[in-house]
Write a structure and sequence with these properties.
This protein has 20 helices and 12 strands. By secondary structure, the chain is of the alpha/beta class. It folds into 2 domains: 3-254, NAD(P)-binding Rossmann-like Domain (Rossmann fold), CATH 3.40.50.720; 258-442, N-(1-d-carboxylethyl)-l-norvaline Dehydrogenase, domain 2. The protein has a 6-stranded parallel sheet, with helices on both faces. A 3-stranded mixed sheet has the order 4-3-10, with helices on both faces. Strands 9-11-12 form a 3-stranded mixed sheet, covered by helices on one side. Strand 3 (55-61) and strand 4 (64-70) form a beta hairpin. The radius of gyration is 22 Å and the shape is globular. The structure holds D-mannonic acid. D-mannonic acid is lined by residues 160, 199-201, 269, 272, 341-342, 349. Residues 160, 199-201, 269, 272, 341-342, 349 line the site of D-mannonic acid (CS2).
Length: 448
């Protein structure tokens, strides 16, 4: 049976790649299975094991929730329990595709250069450990074991990272070279790393979602998933071997994903990050509340105007409908999408979602007041969290906490933030604008 090994067995994967694969299987033809891999925790595996890893997917449309049973996983491996089992699964000749949803931080890339951070603690540890804990280490060692057979394989990144396939390839190759794994020739000849753009808003499962889905299925389940009706998956046509018939179930297989990636990161994800920080600062908890706040909505619309001016001409005609659909998607109250969930890992998200727009426009001498507001909201948010003694949910929390603690005033905070993000933006006037926006966001209950 053809097999996919998926690193990052979580809600998004269960609502997206697993849903498409189950739909493709339902058309007949070879039935693909997915071996899920949890990178850290065993709880999801434990909760699903007695049901053979099947679960209910609730799809929230305008008419309510439609439930579907997804039964496509053959097993779930947990990396810390048995990393070698994951390496063996990648090397298994039945495996044709390794896909990933490990979030931005799972790539261990330097935010500004996009190169793998081999000196960082996680990759440095995996370089000397034949039983790795990171996705990069596991992929490199899995491919090294597979190289003995020369069997082709596709490594398919499904994370919100621009150029995700190319960056992942560089990370795996860089890691392998530093670890002394001789797989360069095998990768060149037999491994493909297509880019892909994924989109489906999928919040963490809440008790309310659990109860709503149980009322529809008549059985209570520990780990159903609730997602939105909208779904998109655009994949570069660059596979080393077979794939499920994804093209027949709505996946777009295209020569170049970059324009779609930029559109999604700079419109959907940028707005999400803006709402996450600015929204929480003024007391909102959910996306639907923040987007209905007239002031924040104006900032988001302005941010979109600025972002659109940096997008490739090939997607220009799609923008009005895309923006309108985003507003509708954000407004769905029943999704109860928590701003705090989106606010995590900002140090890695801003450089992909906001900074490129600022930099491209700055290079053309164009101001970006709304994107500036979004960056300011992030700075004001991290300052508020640190001053309240709360931990930042960010892999750079130590550095960010130090930045906040060492900054004697807002200008110092802004200078340190700009240096941290390595932003190439024009000088003093822009910095003064950023300072004003951070100060405005920092006044309780006042929106700038
Ligand atoms: C969100 C994304 O948490 C976040 O950072 O912006 O998870 C977003 O919901 C998805 O990319 C939608 O496809």
């Amino acid at each position: 049976m053809p097999r996919i090994v998926h690193l990052g067995f979580g809600n998004f994967h269960r609502a997206h790649q697993a849903w498409y694969t189950a739909a493709a299987n339902a058309l007949g033809g070879p039935a693909w299975t997915i071996t899920g891999v949890s990178m850290r925790r065993s709880d999801l595996r434990d909760a699903l094991a007695s049901d053979g890893f099947a679960y209910t997917l609730g799809i929230r449309g305008t008419e309510g929730i439609e439930v579907q049973r997804i039964a496509v996983h053959d097993s779930v491996l947990v990396v810390p329990e048995n990393p070698q089992a994951v390496i063996d699964a990648i090397a298994d000749p039945e495996t044709q595709i390794v896909s990933l949803t490990v979030t931005e931080k799972g790539y261990h890339l330097h935010p500004a250069t996009g190169e793998p951070d081999l000196k960082g603690a996680a990759l440095a540890a995996d370089l000397v450990n034949p039983l790795p804990s990171t996705a990069i280490g596991i992929l490199a060692r899995g491919l090294a074991q597979r190289a003995a057979t020369n069997a082709p394989i596709t490594v398919l990144s499904c994370d919100n990272v621009s150029g995700n396939g190319r960056k992942l390839r560089r990370a795996v190759e860089g890691f392998a070279a530093a670890a002394g794994l001789d797989i360069g020739a095998y990768i060149t000849a037999h491994v493909r790393f297509p880019d892909s753009m994924v989109d489906r808003i999928t919040p963490a499962t809440t008790d309310a979602a659990r109860a709503e889905i149980a009322a529809l299925t008549g059985r209570s389940e520990p780990q159903p998933v609730l997602t939105e009706a909208f779904s998109e998956w655009i994949v570069e046509d660059d596979f080393a071997g077979p794939r499920p018939d994804w093209g027949a179930v709505g996946v777009e297989i295209v020569p170049d994903v970059a324009p779609f990636e930029a559109r999604k990161l700079r419109l959907l994800n940028a707005a999400h990050s803006c709402l996450a920080y600015a929204g929480q600062l003024v007391g909102h908890r959910y996306v639907h509340e923040a987007i209905r706040d007239p002031h924040l909505r104006r900032v988001v619309e302005g941010l979109w105007d600025e972002a659109v001016s940096t997008l490739p001409a090939s997607v220009a005609a799609t923008i009005p409908a895309y923006r309108a659909a985003l507003l509708d998607r954000f407004e769905v109250e029943a999704m109860r999408h928590e701003l705090a969930q989106i606010a995590q890992d900002g140090s890695l998200k801003l450089p992909l979602r906001l900074v490129p727009v600022l930099e491209q426009r700055a290079a053309r001498n164009e101001a970006s007041p709304n994107v500036t507001q979004a960056v300011a909201a992030w700075l004001a948010f991290i300052r508020r969290e640190v001053e309240a003694g709360r931990d930042l949910a960010d892999p750079a929390s130590t550095d960010l906490t130090a930045i906040v603690q060492e900054a004697t005033d807002t200008p110092a905070l802004c200078r340190a933030g700009v240096t941290f993000l390595d932003m190439k933006v024009p000088g003093p006037a822009w910095l003064a604008e950023l300072v004003r926006a951070v100060d405005a966001f920092s006044r309780p209950s006042v929106t700038p």
